């Protein structure tokens, strides 16, 4: 560490340790919740979250659908908190993610779903929070204090807690083994140098792209560009971008593309090369590209954990972009660490 490092950078470097702590301390709660849900055999899942936590839920949506063949839909908290509607959701599972567990709309929506018969699972960094109190099960993420406004440790540990829960539910030993090997891979990911890409992120609007679980990572990346660098970034599925948004791509337009070693990697790489051929500056976490720039990336041995390593490397880059622009990423303009909405 150096004095010039941001608090955000220090917390990025703490991610492997935070994940190790979760894997050491989180098992009992996760196994019990998975046993409970397996007995219920729910036909579908719902998620309740906002911001980075909602991006974690998008990741878990793909994991649920691809691993368990069970759809998972995001429910707008305002359905209950503003419109006063109680959904019919008996025998479902509600996954509510909130690092603080305190936002009134998240708590109110979760309480409503639990009272309507959904098994509510809270993924939070505060197991004494209001969210924990209205849920059937709480999965503490054990991230430790996160002082920078931008979520990094809590985003990564929220995804891992949720993936572990799904792996226990399915008895997926391969995914569980991959999760327990993550700390070393994430340590490697903190050392990936994305300086060339950072130099291209000069304040112009840009796209972030992904597909499947990597699209959730793309969403998180776009948010981090906005809140820590004051850069207008839009996230799209690599398929969706070709249905209209591609029209604004011009010479030098920055594009950051996330891809893991999954079934979507080849098609994502193809889109990366198409955009590069149109003049965009494209940087991608896949070696399958021919015209786009390959970013250093860590493969974790499992397609569902590869994108987690990519976001850790990205966090280091976005901290560098903020510094290049003379912005302190620890105190984003107009933002507080805990946002409470109704």
TrEMBL record:
Keywords: Aminotransferase, Repeat, Transferase. It comes from the Bacteria. One of its GO terms (biological process) is carbohydrate derivative metabolic process. GO terms for molecular function: carbohydrate derivative binding; transaminase activity. Residues 33-185, 196-332 form the SIS domain. This is Glutamine--fructose-6-phosphate transaminase.
